Amino acid sequence: MVQFFATLILSTLVSTATPAGSPDPTTLMYSPRIVAHATVLTRALAQRIHFNEGQYLKVKALHLQMLAERSLLESGLADATAAERDTWLATAQARYEAELAALLQPEQRLAYQQLRSNLTAHRLN
Questions:
Q1: Pick from 45, 102, 39, 87: nearest CA to 67
Q2: Beta-carbon neighbour count of residue 104 at 10 Å?
Q3: CA 107, 113, 119, 122 torsion: positive or negative?
Q4: By the 8 A CB rule, do 47 and 110 touch?
C-alpha cells in the first residue's frame, strides 16, 4: 500500500513538473518582444534594487502588463491628439508606479526613487 501511494505521488510530481527549458506559462500570452523587454527591465531594476525571488516575479509580471498596456494604448490611440495620448500614457505610468511601490519594501522604494531622480537628471543634462 505504501509503495502504491509513493508511486502515485511520484508519478503526479513527474507529470506536473515542467522541464527546465520550457517557457514560463505566465509569459505565453505576450509577444516575444514584450517578454524580452520586460525581462531586460526587470533584471536592470533588480541589479539596483535587489529583489527577492517573489518580488522579481511580481515585478516582471508588472512589467509585462505595463508594456502590453502601453503597446495597446499606442496602437489604439493612433488617431488621438498628442495631449490625449499623453494623458492616457501618464495615467498608465502612474498606475505602474503605484503598483510597483506596493511591491517594494521601504528601503527599496527609496532606492527606486533615487534611481528615477538620477535618470531624470541625467536625461535633462
A1: 39
A2: 19
A3: negative
A4: no
- The alpha-carbon radius of gyration of the chain (Å, integer) is 20
Work out the burial of residue 51: count CB atoms within 10 Å of its CB; fewer than 13 is exposed, 13-18 middle, 19 or more buried: buried
Q: Which three cell numbers stand for residue 124?
A: 535633462
Burial category of 59 from C-beta neighbours within 10 Å (exposed 0-12, middle 13-18, buried 19 and up):
buried
Q: Taking the chain (125 residues) in consecutive chunks of 10 residues, what is each chunk's mean pLDDT?
A: 42 42 62 93 93 95 93 82 87 93 94 85 50
Its pTM surpasses 0.85 = no
- Is residue 31 within 8 A of residue 52, CB to CB? The reply is no
Q: Which three cell numbers stand for residue 55?
A: 518580488
